[in-house]
Design brief:
By secondary structure, the protein is mainly beta. It has two domains: about 10-220, Sulfite Oxidase, Chain A, domain 2 (Alpha-Beta Complex); about 240-349, Immunoglobulin-like (Sandwich), CATH 2.60.40. About 5% of the residues lie in helices and about 40% in strands. It is built from four helices and 23 strands. The strands form six sheets. It has a five-stranded mixed beta sheet. The longest helix has 8 residues, at about 115-125. The two termini are about 35 Å apart. One of its GO terms (biological process) is sulfur compound metabolic process.
């Protein structure tokens, strides 16, 4: 191992959950080696040679696609950020159970594939279709039951028919890596990563609400600790930002230091990022770069500090829908959707 290069931070091994070292990555396209890994079960066993994708259910013309069929259809490539719904879970107060992700359950790259809409149109959806269920080959027992489940999620028909919801087969110009969903995975821009089902096994159109456990038990905001009152589904990413440099608890000298990071949203575009170097008493708007529709944006600020001491640095993003990163995150007992103002502390000597 080359110790001069960053590597993943392990959160669990069975199943494998690993975090991107986001603070040490300068590129906006994340390599396979450093793309975060989020799994509910062990990796599935499947082979390229026997792979077929059924599209069935509430349709007039069920389909069975080979990979060659899919790859011959009109395709598109999109740079998309994928964020685990549990990203930054470790920062919630009071603490919540689950993988204690810090800032690195987020990555992005270029995904190429066929719009899901194309496959659904070939199957001729019947009137009254409500949702599209996408099932993966990953399967196992949940911790809350002895039953065996495959990982499956549904999309509302409108989101499934969005022109940029993809059945992807390439990542960064090559086949999707096995650990990230080879040979096919769903890519749902602007939604948290749980919607982008890996190792797609089957697509089923239904005329009722899907009630699988990864839809109705997990990936639900429960605002109360001891009851399900007020529960709402996890869907669109919240507006968010992360400080990449300096590192939390870093020791600096007086002089000029670059503060930089990323910001992203599930609605519209990031239009403003502000930072504070005095614990939020005053805010300064910073420079933004690369305003792409589905990717994070880079931001930076040159901080001139003349006085020694300890400083709390904050970052706060605003999107084009007027959504602003919250002073206090929306607490929920499963720890999803953390988007509190990001903060680090540094010491200047």
């Amino acid at each position: 191992m080359n110790l001069s290069k960053p590597y993943l931070t392990t959160r669990s091994l069975q199943p494998e959950n690993q975090e991107t070292p986001i603070q040490f990555i300068k590129n906006n396209i994340i390599s396979e080696r450093l793309f975060f890994r989020r799994n509910h079960f062990s990796y599935p066993n499947l082979t390229y040679s026997s792979y077929w994708l059924p599209v069935n259910g509430h349709v007039r013309n069920p389909q069975l696609f080979s990979l060659q069929n899919i790859m011959s259809l009109p395709s598109k490539a999109l740079t998309v950020v994928l964020e685990c719904a549990g990203n930054k879970r470790s920062f919630f107060e009071p603490k919540v159970f689950g993988e204690q992700w810090e800032k690195g359950a987020i990555s992005q790259g270029v995904w190429k594939g066929v719009p899901l809409k194309t496959l659904l149109q070939l199957a001729h959806i019947k009137e009254g279709a409500l949702e599209v269920v996408v099932e993966g080959y990953d399967v196992g027992k949940r911790t809350d039951t002895d039953k065996v489940y495959s990982y499956a999620r549904s999309l509302p028909i409108e989101k499934a028919l969005h022109e940029d919801t993809l059945v992807a087969y390439e990542y960064n110009g090559g086949p999707i890596p096995f650990k990230h969903g080879f040979p096919l995975r769903l890519i749902v821009p602007q939604w948290y990563g749980m919607a982008s089902v890996k190792w797609v096994k089957q697509i089923t159109i239904v005329n009722r609400a899907f009630s699988g456990p990864f839809q109705t038990v997990d990936y639900v905001y429960y605002p109360k600790k001891d009851s399900d009152e007020g529960a709402t589904p996890v869907t669109t990413m919240r507006v968010n930002s992360s400080i990449k440099k300096p590192l939390d608890r870093e020791i600096l000298t007086t002089g000029v230091h670059e503060i930089n990071g990323i910001a992203w949203t599930g609605k519209g575009l990031i239009v403003k990022v502000e930072i504070s170097t005095d614990s939020g008493q005053t805010w300064t708007e910073v420079k933004l770069r690369n305003k792409d529709q589905y990717s994070w944006i880079d931001w930076s600020y040159d901080w001139e500090v003349a006085e020694k001491g300890e400083y709390t640095i904050l970052s706060k993003a605003t999107d084009s829908h007027g959504r602003v990163q919250r002073k206090e995150p929306y607490w929920n007992r499963k720890g999803y959707g953390y988007n509190g103002i990001d903060r680090i502390k540094v010491k200047v000597e």
